[in-house]
Design brief:
Blueprint: E1 7-10, H1 21-36, E2 40-43, E3 51-52, H2 56-61, H3 63-74, E4 78-82, E5 87-88, E6 98-101, H4 103-108, E7 110-113, E8 119-122, H5 132-141, H6 144-150, H7 155-171, H8 180-193, E9 198-201, E10 209-211, E11 223-226, E12 234-238, E13 243-248, E14 255-259
Parallel strand pairs: 1-2, 2-4, 3-5, 4-6, 8-9, 9-11
Antiparallel strand pairs: 1-12, 7-8, 10-11, 12-13, 13-14
Helix pairs in contact: 1-3
Length: 271
Amino acid sequence: MFSKAEFVAVSDIHLQHAGDDRSRVLVDIIDACTAAKVPCFALLGDIFDFCLGGGAYFRKKFSTIGERLESLAAGGTRVLFVEGNHEFKMNAMGWRGVEVVSETESRRGLAWRSASGARIVMTHGDLFHAPAAYLAFRRLIKSTPTLMAVSMVPGFLMDAYALRHAKVSRSRDPYRTLDEAAILDDARKFAVAQNADHLLFGHFHMPWTVPIGAERRHQRESLMLCMNSWDKPNLLLFDGEGFHRGFCSGPGQPLVFSPARADHNSDLIPR
């Protein structure tokens, strides 16, 4: 599937059912990383449409993904999992060798350094230009009392409710608007604060590729890259020289790569 990569990232897959097409494509990508001995594989949140770690129901439901990630980690790849807003207590899944990023680390970004010395910082992205109501709701549903209460509900019932809620929420997407300039300005400030040569994030389902806007130490062009939606399965690959977006039409199909270059209009590039 690919032969040269220092770093591979996926995000916002929103798996609903084990064994569906998206799950099978993800397994293909993990297997390709294993075969190519990729040094780092990162999952940047919302890999699952809903997952509550610690429950036997979800460990069984997504056991194939967990087993593949464990195998990848056992082969020497650093496997990183950043929780998205659809995932909870992922450290309780018990996947051996998979580093689940804590809430504190997620807020300040998780950094990985390439062989050339570039500092690549990752976060899910849902905190960029987030409304106060969302932040309050996020604190509530991520709180220990809420998670303890939810864990008392049978897994299959909680799963059915959460998937239905996610479906209703997505049905409103065509009517929502994104303030791209404000989101990217927040992202730029975050990247500069974290001394990032490159910033990767997801959540918005938009393939933004824009300059950070300040000269960085290791790269002539430092980029902020948002992950695309998995309505068309995709990934980001860093080969030591630059980023490439990979697209796949379905299980068993090849990935088609194209360079990720700054392509936004100047009025959307943060100053």
